[in-house]
User: Fold this.
Amino acid sequence: MAYVIAAPCIGDYSCVEICPVDCISPEPRDADFRTAEQLYIDPKRCIDCGVCVEACPVLAIYEDRNLPEKWRHYADVNREFFEHRRSASGDMQSRA
Ligand code: SF4
Ligand code: SF4
Assistant:
């Protein structure tokens, strides 16, 4: 289980500031910041504490099993963001 950020995200970083394990990305210093449409939660690092839910001003964060039907695919969207990032990082390391 993990928490998931869905479509309403306005990127105000309230959740980033409060997350105890720093598993929400991207931040302005990240290479993929410019192309990201929203923020995402890394399901491999999220500890399911839930504190980000109340910090979000637009109700964009849900436990994955409680995602509204229309946003159910956002569990994959969040996971794939980090898979792509890890894959890109591996590509860069293999080229070094
Ligand atoms: S549930 Fe907790 S660990 Fe997971 S993203 Fe939210 S604040 Fe971070
Ligand atoms: S608190 Fe909500 S709106 Fe703000 S960045 Fe996080 S998910 Fe997006």
